[in-house]
Amino acid sequence: MSTYLFPEVAARPQAEPKTVYVVANGDLRLTTNVKTWPKQQEVEAQFGAAVEAQGWKVKRAHGVNPKTGHGFIDHQKYGMEVFKNIPVDAPLVVVESVWQYSHHLLHGLRDHQGPILVVANFAGDFPGLVGLLNLTGSLTKMGKPHSALWSKDFTDQWAREKLAEWLQTGQIVHDQSHVRDLPALPDSEEKRLGEALAAQLKADKAIIMMFDEYCMGMYNALIDDEMLNPTGLYKERVSQSALVAEMNKVTDDEAQAVRAWLDAKGMKFFIDNDGDEKECLTDAQVHQQMKMYVAAVRMADDFGADVVGIQYQQGLKDMVPASDLVEGLLNNVDRPPVASREGDRVLYEGQAIPCANEVDQGVAVDAYVTNRVWLAMGLDPATTLHDVRWGDDWGDDFVWVLEISGSVPASHLGGYDKAYSMRQSYYFFPLGGGTLSGVSKPGEIVWSRVFIMDGKLHADLGRGSCVEMPPEEVQRRLDATNPEWPIMNAVLHGVDRDHLMARHKANHLNVAYAPDAETADKALVAKAAMFTAMGIEVHLCGDVNV
User: E strand or H helix at 235, and its extent?
Assistant: First the structure.
């Protein structure tokens, strides 16, 4: 008889015939999960009705937690317990109507042997589409086969047909004819510029300073050093606690000077010092954000950073107001001056400091490249990421609602006098803080995304236009999403709704302006050439003149 204690591994249950197993992945923040649970129940019912109409059954793989009052998978350990009870070969669906932390269930999806489908309701009220794109981007990075489906309520013929395709075959094939690999670029000044910038980067190298990594479960936003470093980019990993410590060294006078600069520029702050701090923006919240801005610039200078990223979530959100306003300021050339601690020099004077919101490292690579190319071409280098939040038809076009959590560079809005600041929502940001919001100005844009696929870095590049819409339509779109956040109403040239959803490998999309279409095409060529010379595989999306 053995003297060792051998563990027992419980057998997984058998899949029931013609049964779809459903899981609901959620946020880590209790306030967010509680607020969004009614919407999740509504979307699950709509999807369930569509499955049952096909002659299949739906079995929810986990219940409602009576202590929390919601039925989301809300942390990784719970996700591991849930997957123990899911037949390993069963058809599995992740239903998303809200933001989700992908690592809560990536472990189970990695080992699952049956077909996987990620679905979301095509709506803007909660970021289910954003969550879907994050999870499918993470599965793409992981190399895990999966399918995706989106619909307003799963009653339209297209969604029903695609669902039937998955139930019958275990996969959905979407039209991605809008994507093509970058052809060999003919010799041009722009091509030579991109290659020269890549050579300079390889020789001189550059630093991405990350205040902690892995924001909100974004596995797709992590790039391992072994993949990143050959491009010439290196990480400087800094703790968010160091940012708080540096904030405590910034004087009240220094913070007040930043606020006074913004006030003089005409930026409007919707302040209510007498209201409920859970609902109202206060001067005290903004004052702390001004200290964070000074602290972030000084720390960037300390480490010689070329790009900055602040995780902000778990931990920092419970200590200080939101970082978003800071990030928007950093991304703009015209921004409040910050002196060194000794007061002997202005840091990064006359420069934008590219900032990757939510420490998305695909964004960080993209923002660095955009900054260098746009500066070399004499263009405004202000760049930002946006969530692919939602969209709707407008006339003959499908116009995307692109929004980011709280802040964009002021030049994207037409200047600080077109910008305003509102309190961040309590259920995302318990300690508040203001935004740097407004409506993005009409004009030509280059959009892009750096992502991981097949174990390599890739970049999708496309062209678009930010369009001007009547104020009432803009407000309708804001009210359908997050009215306190900045909005870009964008038409992506040659890329319709389903094209982008089928292809895009991330919840974020980078944008930068160009003065006209011809210049935008030239900037795109230079950017593509720089990416290629950095060893990144480039793909063109939609109507691009190359």
Answer: strand 233-238
